[in-house]
Task: structure prediction
Amino acid sequence: MEWQEIDDLVDTTYAAFSEKHGSEQIATKQALRVIGYFLNRNRPENVLEVGAGLGTITSFANSINKRYSTYYALERNSWCQSQMRHQSFFQFIHLIDSFDKIPESTTFEFVIIDDLTSHSDIQKIVRCLCREFVIVIEGHRYPQRFALISYLGKLSIPFRYISIGKSKDSYKGACVILSNEASIYKKLNLYHSLLRVRLGLLYMKFREIRARIPIRKIFGLR
Ligand SMILES: C[S@@+](CC[C@H](N)C(=O)[O-])C[C@H]1O[C@@H](n2cnc3c(N)ncnc32)[C@H](O)[C@@H]1O
Result:
């Protein structure tokens, strides 16, 4: 899929979901772009989405690719679950309300986190990661980010992380990517360049992006 197609999909998905009742906390367009980029490039087979809410990311991810072996969408709120049941992507996913519903043998190479997860949730997420993984956290979510970083470090799992986004105190327009993929550093550098170019264009196209959005940090942690 080309960048323009991903951008168009971001626009149509965001427009459709932002009109829904309860849409105040849906994923930002920027996070959708980041997720779209990695889903399109990496073509993961097994995806876990934590905090599926109304299904904005679920819908988007299942438009990018309809051939996941397993796509688990975790949502504990029954009203949100009922909203997802009416969506066309529903047939392609496993909607679950707790980590316990994930079969023991299932592991994920791509994890999307869009809510405040507790330390025990973080342990459960890490337990079902594939040997090579990409985790995208929607928003800054500093406590979770650092809990996840320190837990991976405690387990001596090597990884890199990249933080994208401008605002320090808001969850809007930011996300974090953690990965131990062998080629991730190259990908992140490429992604950085592409994103800057794309956001340059997007700035003209969408006024909500007010400035160049730099990659703040690239750390190689062990
Ligand atoms: C920010 S909203 C998600 C929005 C959604 N990604 C979207 O863009 O439409 C976060 C959701 O995560 C759910 N949630 C939070 N913690 C959870 C947990 N431990 N297990 C399952 N769902 C959880 C909440 O019920 C809430 O609906």
